[in-house]
Amino acid sequence: MSKSQTTDVSPASFPESKDIRIGVYVCHCGVNIAGVINVDEVVAYAKTLPNVVVVRQYKFYCSDNGQAEIGRDIRDGLVNRVVVAACSPRMHETTFRRVLLENGLNPFYFVQANIREHATWVNMYESAGAQVIAQDHIRMQVSKARELKALKPQKVMVRPSALIIGAGISGINTALDLADQGFQVYLLEKDATIGGHMAQLDKTFPTMDCSSCILTPKMVDVSRHPNITIMAYSELESVDGFVGNFEVKIRRKAHYVDQGKCTGCGECSLHCPVLVGNKFDLGLSPRKAIYIAFPQAVPGLYTIDMDACIKCGICAQTTVCEPQAINFNDQDEIDTIEVGTIIVATGYDPIDPTNLGNYGYGRFDNVITGLEMERNLSSTGPNLGHPVRPSDGTSPKSIVWVQCVGSRDTREGYHPYCSRVCCMSAIKQARQYKEKHPEAQCYIFYMDIRAFGKGYEEFYESAGHNFGIKFMRGRLAEIQENPDKSLLIRAEDTFLSQPIELNVDMVVLSIGLEITQDSDQIASLLAIQKSSDGFFMEAHPKLRPVDSLTDGIFIAGTAQGPKDIPDAVSQAKGAAAGAAILMAKGEVEVDPYFSIVQPGLCSGCRSCINQCPFGAITFDQVLNIANINPIKCKGCGTCVSTCPSEAIMQNHFTTKQLMAIIQGVLGGK
Amino acid sequence: MVETIVNGAENAHSEKNQDYEPFILGIFCNWCTYTGCDQAGTSRMQRPPNLRVMRVMCSGRVEPEMVIEALKLGADGVLIGACHIGDCHYVNGNHKTVRRMPVLVKLIEQYGFNPNRVWLRHISASEGAELTEIVKEYVDILKKIGPNPIKKKK
What we know:
The structure holds two protein chains of two kinds. Chain A is an alpha/beta fold. Chain A folds into five domains: about 5-155, Rossmann fold; about 160-195 and about 215-255 and about 335-345 and about 520-585, FAD/NAD(P)-binding domain; about 255-330, no CATH class; about 350-515, FAD/NAD(P)-binding domain, CATH 3.50.50; about 595-650, 2-Layer Sandwich (Alpha-Beta Plaits), CATH 3.30.70. Helix content of chain A is about 25%, strand content about 25%. Chain A contains 16 helices and 35 strands. In chain A, a hairpin with a 4-residue loop joins strand 26 (about 485-495) and strand 27. The longest helix of chain A is centred in the C-terminal third of the chain and has 21 residues, at about 565-585. Chain B has six helices and four strands, in the order αβαβαβαβαα. In chain B, helix 2 links the parallel strand 1 and strand 2. Chain B is an alpha/beta fold. Classes of the chains: A alpha/beta, B alpha/beta. The interface between A and B is large, with 57 and 56 residues.
């Protein structure tokens, strides 16, 4: 990191102009702005502000014509500072900066007054109030515009390497797409094998493809790819740096089996005397303390579960482990890697329905979750593909699937969002069971069936018509257990508007998806945001659905929100494209918001030095002043507000500029 | 200067003026609160028209002088918006803001201002609803406190 990654950070080279001619461009944004406030009045108001020489209005300034109008005024020499009063700068700041640049003006002579998100959209029925706020916001930005300084965008190198966090179907696809383009990929996975939740599924809707058959070849491709390094059984330790130049520390958890020596022969597991529940099978089947998660696991090398191991030493005997791979003294190691981009594909956790008391999960033997049913239906699962009642091991003659368990529920602790996969998953499971037991009764209790994907509606239709699955519209009120362990269902049939009772052999709870438990930690390490639903937040819900708010960090798959496999794969490929754009260009422009020490003003007190979380400030012993490294500086400005001598200046957020905003809006200047 | 302001010192329990519209200056960090404020807009969450927003990259950039200047010029309240602790885009800029706040509040009290004239609130990028509620609450409180007394002196 200490090596300079810059191509050019020389200070501003654009000439400063004493003559300030501000153009204010008020956007109607269709009716979004013009429908709430009187734009003519705003224009008349803006004309009264000092240094404002041109004020115009237009329906959409972000359009070609709108941009051209601004460009024309710049080229004609009418204006040399531009204020666009429109949407949020987070939306179109870059658009308008480009207009300035293309027309020969420094792009940092632009500021944007947010009169849509911060005025008309939040005061839709208070046009008088919105009018005042809009005009105040314009006055604030005009005041700042008078103090703007020309700046030169910083360019930083982007390393041609990516870290992908999470090796489920999303992470795997992103990894393969990037690696095939020649980029070095590190694929991080917290479990001992890659594959994620998709490896646990039996069949995929609506095509009934065998999940393993389409996933495991991809897992093998990943393991054989020369550009992919799998870092399984590893966790994120720390992340440093910025777009193009991330330095990531990764904790490689101790396997207690030398991964270089283990051949994956499995003798150790055969001899191990300890049995514990296999997490991969949700505890429905046993595994040994020394294990691989499932037969097709990649990497197919063994790990000792130290929570279960009794250290009997049998596996370590040379007659058992010929290559002598067992190492009880193995310790976690920290690896450091340097990457240009990061893709977060950490996936989801299934909702734990234990606390949903009225469904009796955990209390009643024959209430299971959808994912448990999936393992039951799988030919590699605990019952070799023949689902049985947990209470007596017989094939259930009637099964109820309960939809929206933990989803679409506004009660405290549940999730108001739709988990998107449970409808189709339940229909698919019911159909699979019907294929094996045509005589069985299968019911699905639902609120709405959301069969939105390609071929989904047809699949749903066919489930009722061709397979005789009964769809009951109504949310389940409660489940009770009968003495013979069968279950009594109470619900309302909302089509008949009457309560119904039903005795069935087994209940499957279609549990929803929620963000993984470690997501807060990951968000914190990467400094990325989470949405109110808990999933990672995209930079824009429509236009930048795979970008995080932090440059160089992308989001893929269910980490961004519940989605099915086709959507997760599409997003994974989108994230790969986003990361590849940066890495293929090899350099990226970043906002030059770094801070500068003005040598004449610095008293050498060093107050700023330990305020900087990035170690960007050093002390120049010769000149006796602080010095800021513009590459390490990330532009928060905390040092500026710390400096007692006002010696530090943050580009584009100088004290003069911010004070001008305050004085402008309050002092009427 | 100081004397003028002290002469206009406020007493939170004296005059209650609910008829005025408080002027709130929001100083919001780019990554959390400004984005959350955008989200409130995108979601059309209606709030009273009292908030003006100034964007800084990090709440750690907020200088006490800015708050004092705003109050000196007649702002009725200053709302500093920061990321939640642990979520700062710049590791811990918001910690520094949190640590500056008690001193800042003490300072404005010494100038004679009601301590509620400056608020620090942690509002994430997805908390438009929380922002809306905070603004409503702040407007209510500022209406109870009454206008910034400096405005009368002017």
